[in-house]
Amino acid sequence: MTEQQTHDEAHGGALGTRLNWLRAGVLGANDGIVSTAGIVVGVAGATDERSALLTAGLAGLLAGSMSMAAGEYVSVSTQRDSEEAALAEERRELREEPEAELAELTELLAARGLSEDVAREAAQQLTERDALRAHARVELGIDPEELTNPWHAAAASFVAFTVGALLPLLAITLPPPSWRLPVTVVSVLIALALTGWSSARLGAAPPRQAVLRNMAGGALAMAVTYGAGSLLGAAGV
After folding, report:
1. What's the chief localization of this chain (predicted)?
2. Is pLDDT above 60 for 79?
3. Which of 30, 32, 20 lies closest to 202 in space, CA to CA?
4. Nearest in space to 108 (alpha carbons), one of 97, 119, 93, 92
């Protein structure tokens, strides 16, 4: 194994974490685009007043970004609580049953393809170096030094949603009245194509299907809300 290969593999977990955050950011921006576009296009079906469009768009942006941030905070906090509880239990087992834990670590390493002798030697060395981290990573699949941070997750979701939501909001309010709807639809579809392509690339999936699926979902959302807004506007609601 070359030095370069060793270096790359050592950072594989960190790379995976960064990719997960980037993927979450892309999906958060995608949600901001679709939800806010649906709101402003729906309102545009009922009225072309810039103040009404701006008010609806800002309300959707703030509500959506706060909801995303709160939801992500609660979700990641629950995940972190579970991780901390699992680590606390592992500390207790290591303190009260060290031999049983060493045997368990040996079995886990052997199950990954190591011979019994090599697995036992590796388990002993890992235990001497950092028993908790060894068991946490091999048995639980987590790193005690890199637990998920709910505040970071909430902030990332807030920012991603807000950035995505700004596009349809600006597209529906800045152009002249006759251009607002077509500019918004085209810009939203282009943005959804970009986020679909990005999410597919991050997940190593074929981008064509992701792009088409993303654009179709956004187009359907705008069509439904515009139709509803037009009906309400025609009814004088």
Report:
1. membrane
2. yes
3. 20
4. 119
**Burial of residue 173 (number of CB atoms within 10 Å: 0-12, 13-18, 19+):** middle
Tell me the pLDDT band of 108, cut-offs 50, 70 and 90. confident
Residue 1 clears pLDDT 60, i.e. is over it: no
DSSP letters of the chain?
A: --HHHHHHHHTHHHHHHHHHHHHHHHHHHHHHHHHHHHHHHHHHHH---HHHHHHHHHHHHHHHHHHHHHHHHHHHHHHHHHHHHHHHHHHHHHHH-HHHHHHHHHHHHHHTT--HHHHHHHHHHHHHHHHHHHHIIIII---TTS---HHHHHHHHHHHHHHHHHHHHHHHHSS-HHHHHHHHHHHHHHHHHHHHHHHHHHTT--HHHHHHHHHHHHHHHHHHHHHHHHHHHHTT-
Contacts for 199 with CB less than 8 Å, ≥ 6 apart: 23, 26, 27, 30, 210, 214
Locate 35 and state its tokens.
Answer: 């939800």
Please identify which residue in the block is written with the tokens 């049953």.
Answer: 97
Report the range of poorest mean pLDDT among 11-25, 78-92, 94-108, 185-199.
Answer: 11-25
**Rounded to an integer, what distance in angstroms lies between the CA atom of residue 139 and that of residue 184?**
50
**Which of 68, 135, 128, 71 minimizes the C-alpha distance to 104?**
135
- Global confidence as pTM: 0.76
User: What is the total residue count of the chain?
Assistant: 237
